[in-house]
Amino acid sequence: MQPEKLPESGEVSSEAPPPKVRPHFLATDALVLATCTALAYIFAFAYEAGYCSFYGIPASFVTIDLTVMLMVAGALVALLVALFGVANGLYMAFARRSLWIRNAMFKVGIFFTLFVGYLVTYKGHWKGWLPWFLAATIIALVEFAVPILTQRGKATYAEKLEAAAEAEATPGGPPTLFDRLRRHIGQSALNVIVAGILTLNLCRGAGEASAMQQENFLVVNTSPETVVLRVYGGTLICAEFDRAEKRVKKHFILLQAASQLERTFQLESVGPFARESP
Predict the structure, then answer these.
(1) pLDDT tens, 216-246?
(2) 164 and 194 share one domain
(3) What is the domain range of residue 128?
(4) Which residues contact residue 54 at a Cβ distance below 8 angstroms, ignoring those fewer than 6 apart?
(5) Is 47 exposed, middle or buried (0-12, 13-18, 19+ CB in 10 A)?
(6) pLDDT by residue (tens digit) across 154-202?
(7) Distance between CA atoms of 72 and 93, rounded to whole angstroms?
(8) What is the CB neighbour count within 10 angstroms for residue 267?
(9) pTM
(10) Helix/strand/coil for 215
């Protein structure tokens, strides 16, 4: 086997150098797994912190175990699948529309999706979903109603939307820190960060809504009676309650599960509870 002949001095090789493959940020399975685990932990902590905040339990008591992480991760996966189905339907419906209309629908769709999520989570408790309904309504008015007034010189509605979007995209003032951040990390990365923050807030709201609507609790035969609000790492966080008024007091009792063999725990429908007035 003869060695490869090197080009003589002055000769130029006709073979192009192989292209450099730039590794993707999430190219390795280990990094993907680590990222998913960290996100599941963060979202689970946000859920538990929201639950505890309703009863006034300090967030420092919260500990996350594998069971809670799997429950929150499963709920998030189900939510993402449902949202993907809705987003796919909207994309197919507006795929042939202009880019400006699709962008406007994307902005409005985010807030209306959050509104629906909070509405399903909080149900009759309007204070939980009303801010997102107002935000979605304001964004919809800004994106679809304001161009009618500001772009009167355009003939069609699509032209009005396009002109308004171009005016918004044209820099007309000093650059902001938000603009510098977007140029540095990219629009896609910024969208991921914003989506993560919104999801974190949604998880916290889901935890608070769960505490507001929970009916079944373990009742401990202490004197006076207490209910188990949460269990973290073998520690039972209990509180006194009023059966008639369905109100939990902010007097917490910490019991170690391993040392409560002589006590009776009975599952009863004593909720949902109201928060004790400060």
Answers:
(1) 999 998 888 899 999 988 899 999 998 888 9
(2) yes
(3) 29-212
(4) 207, 208, 211, 212, 275
(5) buried
(6) 888 777 877 777 777 666 667 777 777 777 877 777 777 888 888 888 8
(7) 32
(8) 10
(9) 0.73
(10) coil
